[in-house]
UniProtKB/TrEMBL annotation:
Presence of the UniProt keyword DNA-binding in the record: yes
GO molecular function terms attached to this record: DNA-binding transcription factor activity; sequence-specific DNA binding
Matches recorded under SMART domains: HTH_MARR
Protein keywords: DNA-binding, Transcription, Transcription regulation
Taxonomic classification: Bacteria, Pseudomonadati, Pseudomonadota, Alphaproteobacteria, Sphingomonadales
Domain HTH marR-type: 140-235, 313-412
Record has Zinc-finger as a keyword: no
Low complexity composition-biased segments: 1-12
Protein name, entry field: MarR family transcriptional regulator
Organism of derivation: Croceibacterium xixiisoli
Ranges where the record places region Disordered: 1-20
Amino acid sequence: MSDPGGSAASRSGGDGSAELARPGWRRLLRERALGVWTRGAFEPLTAEQLDILTTAFGPLLQDVVAIVEAFALGARVTVGAGGELPPGVATRLDLLLNSFDAIADEQTARLQLDRATQSHVIQSDLWQVLHKVRESAELSYARERDLIELDRRILMMLQTAGPMAPADISSAVGVDKAQVSRSVKRLLELGVAERDQLRSPLRLTIAGEGLSSRLLRLAELRNRELTFDISDEELESFSDTIELLVDRAVALYDQERELAAQVPARADGEADGDAETRNFERRIEGQLVIDRKRIVPSLMTLLSYFARSGGLAFKRLTGLSRFEAFVMSEVGRSAPVDWSTLVNSLHRDHSQASRTLNALMERRLITRSGRPGRRHGRFSLTDAGQELFAIIQQAGNDRSTFLMAPLERDRRVRFLAIFDKIRRNASAQLERERAFAEFEQH
C-alpha cells in the first residue's frame, strides 16, 4: 500500500522526469531573445513562463534571463532589428543556450534529490510501480496458471534457492508467517510442493519444477521489459543501492519491533500494533540475499519491510493502524476530498474504505460536509485529526531521511533516474497486458 505522507506529485502516475526537466526553457529563452531584438524592450514574464524557467534554473534564473536579454540587445545594436534573427546571430544564440544546459542539468539533479527527501516519496513511488507490476502480472501469469502473487514468488524462490523452511521464506519475501503458511498449504494441495514434516524445508515436486521453470521464463521476459533502456552498469548500481536500502529498511523494522515490545499490553492481552506485523518475526542468518537477476522481488522486499516498520511507527505515535494512517494522510493532503477521489487514491474496495472512514469519523478525526450520504459528501480533518496528520507527516520525513541517509548526492540522483525508467516501463507493460486482456475477451 502507499505510504502515508506521499507527495501529490509522486502520485500523479507520470514518470516524474518530464516534470523535473521542463525542456521548454530553451524555447522560452529563444522567444525572449527574439522579442528583445525586435522591440528593444523587456516584457514581464508570465506566471507560466516564470514557473518553467524557475524549474529549469532555480536561483540562477535572473542571471540567465539577463544574459539572454543583453545578448539580444547587443545583436540589435550591431546588426539592427528585423523580423527573424540573422543566421549568424541565431547560431551564436544557440551556442549561448547550449551553455545553459549544465545549469539546467544541475537544477534537475537537485530537484530529483529533493524528491528523495520529501515525506515518503520513496515508499509511495515504490508502491505505485509495484501496483502496476502486480496488475500486469496477474493478467500475464493467469494465462499460464491461476496462482496468487505470493504463491508464484515462493515457487520461483524454491526453484532458484532450493528447499527453504517457512520461517526463512517469510523473512526473505518480507511477508508474515500466517500468509506464508496459507500459501504453502495451497502449493501442497496443488501438488507442486512437498515436505517431510510440518516445519521441514519446503521443496518442489516434479510438477512444481516444471511450473516454476515456465513461470521463471515468463518472469525473465517481463524483467527485460521493465529494464528496457537500462544498461548493465545501471542495473548493477541499482541492485547495490537496493541492497543498502533493504538493510536500512530492516534496521527500521527491528527498531520499531523493539519499541513496540516496550508498549504495555492492552486489557485483552494484546500489545498495540497491526496483527500481521506482530506475527512477522524476522529470522535471518546473515544478510538478506537480493535477487540481482530480477528487479521486482528486491523492490517488493524493500517495500514490505519499510511498510511494516511504518505500520508499527504510526501505531506507536498515533494509535492508528497502517491503513487508518494512510486514509488520514490522503484526506489531509487533499481536503476537502470527495468519496470517489478518496477511494481511487486508496486502491481498496469500497467496503474496507467505508469501514475505516466511518471509524475515523466516529473518533472525530475526520468530518464530512455537503449533501447527505457518504458518496455525496466531502471529507476533511478535524482539529484533532490535523494534529495526528502533522505527526504522521513528521514521522514520514524522519523515516525517509533515515532510509536514504547513506546515499551520497550523486548516488541518489542515479538511483532515482534509473527508478524513473523502471516506472515508465512498468506503465507501458501494464497498458500492453490490458490491451491483450481486452483483445482476448472479444
